[in-house]
Amino acid sequence: MLDADQRRLLGEFVRAHREQMPPTAAAQRRRTAGLRREELAARAGISVTWCTWIEQGRAVQASPEALGRIADALSLSRAERDYLFELAGRVDPDEPGRVSEEAPSALIAAVKSIKHPAYGLDRLWNACAWNQTAARLFHGWLDGDCQRNLLRYVFLEPAARALIPSWEDRARRLLAEFRADFARTFRDPRVSAFLESLRSESRFFSAAWDEQAVQAREGGPRLFNHPRDGVVSFTQHSFAPAERPDYKLVILTPTDRGRF
Q1: What is the mean pLDDT of residues 107-114?
Q2: 0.70 cut: is pTM over it?
Q3: Residue 177 belongs to domain spanning
Q4: Domain containing 199 — which CATH number?
């Protein structure tokens, strides 16, 4: 259930955008600006009473489908629609269908401009951009003709076990970080299919996934046993592009042992 502040903010947002909407042609001569509540209710397929209670901040909670119809009726922009669903504490049911397959141009530009190992991840944690120093570091993932998914690399590729000290602990941590993203992507059928595939290919992955561990993606020291350069260490930093928070930019800055 939403708290009082959330309900108030949600009601103020819906009311303000209703009043900013141009009225129908038949009602353009009236003094009241925007749409009336009954007009918004009719457009959104909800009752006038329900619309009134939402605007008044009462203890009601609209379904994701009803919120989607309200967003469409108010002609909300992408950012406005996200804000509406965030205030309402709901997941937008149309989210998977609107996801672009293309990596943000800002992420690609950032990766190219960084001299240290850097790469970008999409919502399935496929590498969508990387530079040459990252390709050199991540043998068997970003170099040559390899599959590009980070989880598949860590859990399935022998090269990852050789590269990553304390491999099992690091793999569990990585999966806990992926689960934090899963709360926002679980409606995407591609995510479900991806997880089922990995569960069938790795018993360790399946067992670790069932542990339900969740952890925010954090930076910090990262140590690697590189096949050509020996033991190298870095500090990892992760960022999300403002225009596509479901993508990630990961940068590894070398310590004294990370120069290669």
Answers
A1: 96
A2: yes
A3: 105-254
A4: 3.30.450.180
- Is residue 189 very low, low, confident or very high in pLDDT (cuts 50, 70, 90)? confident
> Which residue is it, tokens 């804000």?
83
Domain of 68, CATH number, reads 1.10.260.40
Domain count, the chain: 2
In a domain, 99, yes or no: no
| pLDDT higher than threshold 90 for residue 176 | yes
Q: Are residues 156 and 83 in the same domain?
A: no
Query: Band of the pLDDT at 188, cuts 50, 70, 90?
Result: confident
Same domain, yes or no: 166 and 205: yes
Q: Is residue 259 part of a domain?
A: no
Q: 43-74 b/e with 16+ CB inside 10 Å = b?
A: bbebeeebbbbbbebeeeebebebbbbbbebb
pLDDT at 97: 45
Q: Do 8 and 67 reside in the same domain of the chain?
A: yes
